[in-house]
User: Fold this.
Amino acid sequence: MESKTLRLVLGDQLNTRHSWWKDDPTSFTVFMAESLSETGYVQHHIQKVVSFFLAMRHFAGWLEKKGIEVIYFKLDDKGNKHSFSENIRLLLKERYYKHWSYQLPDEYRLDQELKELAKELDLPCAVADTEHFLSEREDLTKHFKGKKTFVMESFYRMMRKKYGILMDGGEPIRGNWNFDKENRKSLPKDVKIPKPKIFSRKVQDIIDLLEKKDVKTMGRIDPDKFIWPVTRKESLEIDFFVDELLENFGRYQDAMQKDQWSLYHARLSFAMNCKILSPLEVIRKVEETWRSRNSVVPIATVEGFIRQILGWREYMRGVYWAKMPEYAKLNFFDHRQKLPSWFWTGDTKMMCLNQKINQSLDYAYAHHIQRLMVTGNFALLAGIDPDEVDAWYLGVYIDAIEWVEITNTRGMSQYADGGLVGTKPYVSSANYIDKMSDYCAGCHYDKKKKVGEKSCPFNSLYWDFYDRHSGKLEDNPRIGFAYPTLNRMKGEDRAAIIEQAGKYLDDLETL
Ligand code: FAD
Ligand code: SF4
Assistant:
């Protein structure tokens, strides 16, 4: 009988600073597995699967160097049952462990599976925290007890106080909680954009492995130049972000430009979501940078960046645990359209979507506003079923794990939760896209036209969306000018716009 404990580590639990690793290495064995259950629950971007496998393999190597025994099942290992429950049952049977343990999964699906397994097995099981997040699963529910809406700003302020981040005693630094008014500018023509820091690794062996096991993926990959950081050392290159990008992060956070895929964004979401980096170390690093270089780095940028991690990231996780599993079925507008097939090829005449989708297929990455105001905006205006939108977002992005994907996609972007996460739907006509990008210049469609040949689809779909959903949205005070403008339109103009939108909606494939 093994007196050791079997400890399960999931692919997004690669936390080198976890207290587990301080225990006597002879007292436990770690189990990790590449599993068809994980590569197949949605069609993932090939770079996402490769990133996870590389990061897991490096993490297993790091554990072994510390003298920890690791049982690592590769995707094509004969004994691999491709299900965590089945693999654990097998190991417990073969090796007679006395106990087993796991860290709290961040996905509802795996949380349920492991809870069930623990109930079924006649063996002591301990559940550990991942020691990654800055709030507990239930903190958000406690914070908003008795409230119908969950206002992120209130949660964020509580977190600032709790961790003393950007605080001056009990008050927010410089007397303000939020400096967003100073952010979100469009890019000037002559601005210098540093080249993104990328890595270069050969990954043909993993691509072959995926083919051998018939894993269906989406997107593109260069087998000789895999660009994403997958080790802790590489992820700690956050210095590049702090030194080269942070200064302009806030200012141009919402800007978009042709052939520029990450601008001043950190590209740290994969490293954080796999727990290679902790959110607190990223936040502290950025706060320290501001304290030492505040003549160069504006407070607005630092506060804006910290809000994304300390506020939005923790908040989304709280919403997920407060509302799952019901959240995954919400469809406030009862949208039923299918996602057009060009979401998997980028082959559309709409320049904004063409640029943004091709970029996503090339890099498994798009920044927040590209996700929200280009693809998300289009999907919402076109009435796409949130199940379809979720599946695409959960597959395509390197950082997509359900707890943070679904709350952003179904919640913030598709308003399918009826306004729990966002107070109004994030939709726009060509105006906003044109203001924040250079996409409209050179587009097949005319950004100024609402109807007729080559009229920009965003324009008619935008008014049609408000028209179709007036019963659900007209009384929302956050929507502002949309309904007064729509209601002031001449009857024939309004009818022409609705007719134009109808034509586009009937033929999304050819747009
Ligand atoms: P930066 O712009 O440099 O921001 C820094 C960090 O802040 C990010 O790494 C991330 O950890 C955090 N952050 C920023 N915004 C959010 C947010 N809204 N929610 C949670 N964390 C945030 N993020 C994911 O990590 N996984 C997803 O699957 C995901 N899906 C999204 C889907 C849609 C429709 C939208 C609108 C947003 C989604 N986001 C998701 C949030 C955000 O777009 C990404 O976190 C960000 O683009 C990652 O790139 P970055 O590291 O360069 O981020
Ligand atoms: Fe997109 Fe319309 Fe601009 Fe073309 S004109 S890039 S479709 S917003």
